[in-house]
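## tool: complex_structure
## caller: assistant
## args:
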Amino acid sequence: MWDGIFTGLETAVAPFNLMMVVVGCFAGTFIGMLPGLGPISAVALMIPITYGLDPASGIILMAGVYYGAVFGGSTSSILINAPGCASTVVTAFDGYPLAQKGQAGKALALAAYCSFTGGTIGALILLVAAPALATVSLSFQSSDYFALMVLGLTAVAAFSGKGQVLKALAMTVFGLMIATVGTDAISGIPRFTFGNIDLIDGISFLLLAMATFALAEVVMSVLKGNHRVEDAPMDMSSLGSMKLSKEEVKNIAPTATRSSLFGFLVGVLPGAGATIAAFLAYGVERNLSPRAIKDKFGKGALRGLAAPEAANNAASTGSFVPLLTLGIPGSGTTAIMLGALIAYGIQPGPRLFVDNPDVFWSVIISMYFGNLVLLILNLPLIPYISRLLVIPKPILIPLILFFSITGVYLVSFNSFDIELMAIITIIALLLRLLNFPMAPMLLGFILGGMFENNLSRALIISDGSLAFIWQRPLTLLIMCLAVVVLLMPVIGRFVGWRRLQGKASMMVADKGEG
Amino acid sequence: MTITKDHIGGLLFLGLSVVYGYYAYDIRMFPGDQFEPFNAQTVPVALAWIGSIIAILMLATASKHSADRLTFVGLDLALVAKLMLLVWLFAQALQWLGFLLSTIGFLLVGYWLLGERRLKTLLLASVPFALLFWFLLAQVLAIYLAPGRIWQWLLGV
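## result:
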């Protein structure tokens, strides 16, 4: 393990890779600050650039952008009450009231310190947990992998929120369907190409990611007329002091530590991600706080800002665990990174630890550097980076559109891809209007190839019998977990219904007695 | 009966699954492949069935609240249609006019569509940007950008 860590350290401290961390954090912070554009879009926009780099540098850049975007989202949440992404919505609950009280500087500093704490604790656990899990998963067979894919895909649907489970499942299946377009990797037979040569290679992952996130996100804001709405002006001169008193640090330290550990654990769960971690950490911290502090939540409580910030950064790190060790992304952003790694010819999973130790370890180590960069460089520069936001939206939107389109075009040099992007964007817009989540589709699409390969291998080994599901205890265990995860929303609904029934019968009994 | 977003989504997905399933059974196979435990049709056929079942469940459990109806009120559909048309035109222009002119045109029309009317801003935000971007790609990074068919015809380059 130490050899690996040193290899990773050597790769991560290479001047070019250090520069990638810094550039990634800056670019991510800027993109993350733009309301509506979250880490998924930020990472998607970076993919074309990373194609020209070596795998370690590329993935380091994307990890930096990921962190930067989460941090940028927090900044716009605090300063203008416009969260850049879903995971920083909770940050605005207490961050914006603090800014309104003239303590924006303190809120930004606190967000950065807590993000740093979350990221550091997350990176340290990842340093220990990832290799251990990777060693265990080396013994996995194709049937186990197939079961893991099923678990990953169902978990994403299960964590997608109330009333969204079926829609998320439908989108996962839609993603798997899109993955079948093109030449079948096993038999070499073209499928769903309708005689179109441009579809023989299938639909590119980059194209799909750009069209459904970066492009659709921007066009959606145009559709809602957001480009006509002026953001609240930011008065950078009245940020206030960025210093925290000893008392405040003492008060917040346990919150940040608790939320980091909690966030990491939630982040590891496939599909849960930073948003759920931030909301849960906020709720937990509110319940744990004494009455006097509890009443301050939502009105500018420092704990209310510290909890989601530590949790969402730790969760971002945690989501790398299933990606690096099992090859299954834990969130939409890591799904995009998985696609990028596959494009490099690197197969994330337990073999990554053995075959590409430089990529594996340098990603983990550069995550820590990323947090450091955010704290040391980004925080003092926030007033200057924020000035970029004054670019009027009628100028900014066509530029983002242009970067999204050319990002795809400059990889394939095929204008058909741009036409296909426009079509997919329109479909994505319609699906968004119908409240369909997009991340499960991307996950289904990325896992589609592996899903089919592992299923075919498992079926061929077991001579066409589905017995492989219950013959290996590990496969059976993972499949059972997938079933439980899938049934969780139904069980939750049933429990809620029983509780309501119980309350209703008690009320009837009380009335009868009265 | 109120037709809600859930109903429309369920119906769309059912339609998609049926059409996908129809073409899945149409996938050609090598002789004898149909007797193999796994062939090119296995996963698509399974997906079509799973998709249909999910769609039926979506329809069965769809919300019936009128608040969940699909509404286009307040949405600028015309502007989005224009922007998508612009993207399509950009794809065509890349083949005919080349990268530089297409980029300038795309940005100019894009800014204008989104409400920017000041000529100075329109030109300053498009021409220098496109020139700089083209220079970066073609001269610094040495990426070959096709000059466009019209120039090939006119100038023979």
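## assistant note: Chain B has a mean pLDDT of 91. The two ends of chain B are 64 Å apart (CA to CA). Handing back to user.
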